[in-house]
Write a structure and sequence with these properties.
By secondary structure, the protein is an alpha+beta fold. It contains 15 helices and 12 strands. Strands 1-2-3-7-6 form a 5-stranded antiparallel β-sheet, with helices on both faces. The structure holds 5-S-methyl-5-thio-alpha-D-ribofuranose (SR1) and magnesium ion. This is S-methyl-5-thioribose kinase.
């Protein structure tokens, strides 16, 4: 297949014929296409994902569709998101080596990326729903975020390179538009594609949509998201965009990548851990042992949240002290003048800003996963709707509190204590 042919979506039936002469794929899995086994496993909202197994190995073929898969062809979406995903993956690999799948081939015309098949990895969200405790995720994700967010910014990059990259990713307009509407606006009015667990949540939803402080805060965060082109973000860093084993963590799916505020990736990620926390009760089966397992899971998730933030801060601070080569907070103004404390004071300000904003982004992300179009499996897989609504109501209340009061919250322990208190309430 070459990039010059008109775009055509792959299928399980056509993949072997169409990619049978692709050198990169054949080198990984073998040329004997008669023995290729192809499965379509995409369970995300947007794309096709195939696992292709041959005689000498396996690979992933990911292809964008010209529309939103979740909704259908009534919602067109440009194929160029695959281009942004490819370029984001190459930058993430350079800035945080070993944190993303290896890329074997990219075909822009067919909007497809052939990449490493991660096995026996599973999606982190699924592991958390099953009640599995992964020992390394906080460290691995904290390092990934610090390295990609720091090294993709004017704290580190050559200004000319960063501005060129900013211009490149500025064209990811439609994916940003999805976030701008689905995350920051739609949840706060009765937008067409919204849904929620009804009637159980109806009155709480009405209350949130009438909450002026919350709406203003959501729009301030949208303003920040749309205008603060601070660094190259992953753009959709939730537990469904992370694959894990007990010892390995890889970030996938950065098709929403663009230059935005550092706090966005961190906030979205932590929001998904807090949602996993509030959903645990919905996955608790009868029996004392089950209760103990989910209690342990709740404690684990709060620990993961603390550790992720601690690792992020530590690595960001380390990079600040050792790799601050960009045009911001130049060493020539601080360390080179013998003013090491000045550099530390500036670091403190930068981290403080990330902290304030991440709580806002986290609160909004929680709301959109319960009130908007794109829900998450943490809650959706709770079959008992009353129980699901109880879990969701607690998460909504928590999200509202951290979004609106974020400037009065000073530590991650304070946020976790709030989550634990809300979780303890029997009814909301
Ligand atoms: C229409 S796309 C909905 C959501 O799916 C993606 O994973 C993003 O999170 C997006 O907001
Ligand atoms: Mg995705």
């Amino acid at each position: 297949m070459t990039g010059k042919l008109p775009f055509e979506a792959l299928s399980v039936e056509t993949l072997s014929t169409r990619l049978g002469t692709n050198d990169a794929l054949c080198a990984r899995i073998g040329k004997d296409t008669a023995n290729w086994k192809v499965r379509e496993v995409g369970d995300g909202n947007l794309n096709l994902v195939f696992i292709v197994e041959g005689t000498t190995g396996a690979a992933i073929v990911k292809q964008a569709l010209p529309y939103v898969r979740l909704v259908g062809d009534s919602w067109p979406l440009p194929l160029k998101r695959s281009f942004f995903e490819y370029h984001a993956l190459t930058r993430q690999e350079a800035r945080a080596p070993g944190s993303v799948p290896a890329i074997h081939h990219f075909d822009e015309g067919q909007a497809l990326i052939i990449m490493e098949y991660l096995s026996p990895h599973i999606i982190l969200r699924r592991a958390l729903i099953e009640g599995r405790q992964l020992p390394n995720i906080a460290r691995d994700i904290g390092l990934f975020m610090a390295r990609t967010l720091f090294r993709g910014s004017d704290l580190s990059m050559v200004t000319k390179d960063r501005k060129a990259d900013l211009a490149l990713f500025a064209d990811n307009v439609e994916l940003c538009d999805i976030t701008e509407n689905l995350v920051f606006s739609d949840p706060y009015f009765d937008a067409k594609m919204n849904r929620h667990t009804s009637p159980q949540l109806d009155s709480l939803v009405a209350e949130l949509r009438a909450d002026r402080d919350l709406k203003v805060e959501a729009q301030r965060l949208k303003h920040l998201f749309a205008t603060n082109a601070e660094t190259l973000l992953h753009g959709d860093l939730h537990s469904g965009s992370i694959m894990v084993t007990d010892t390995e963590t890889r970030m996938i799916d950065p098709e929403f990548a663009f230059y935005g505020p550092m706090a966005f990736d961190v906030g979205m990620l932590l929001a998904n851990f807090w949602m996993a926390f509030f959903s645990q009760r919905g996955h608790e089966q009868a029996g004392h042992e089950q209760k103990e397992k989910r209690d342990a899971m709740r404690a684990y998730l709060l620990d993961v949240i603390v550790e992720t933030w601690v690792v992020f801060r530590a690595e960001f601070s380390h990079l600040w002290r050792t790799e601050r080569t960009g045009m911001l907070y130049q060493k020539s103004l601080f360390e080179d003048q013998g003013d090491r404390l000045g550099a530390e004071q500036a670091l403190d300000h930068v981290l403080h800003q990330i902290w304030d904003d991440l709580l806002g982004f986290a609160g909004i992300e929680i709301h959109r996963r319960i009130l908007g179009l794109a829900h998450n499996a943490d809650f959706e897989t709770i079959a008992d709707e009353d129980l699901r609504a109880t879990c969701e109501a607690k998460a909504l209340k928590f999200g509202r509190h951290i979004a609106v009061n974020r400037r009065q919250i000073h530590s991650i322990d304070e946020v976790n204590n709030l989550a634990a208190r809300i979780e303890q309430e029997s009814r909301v």
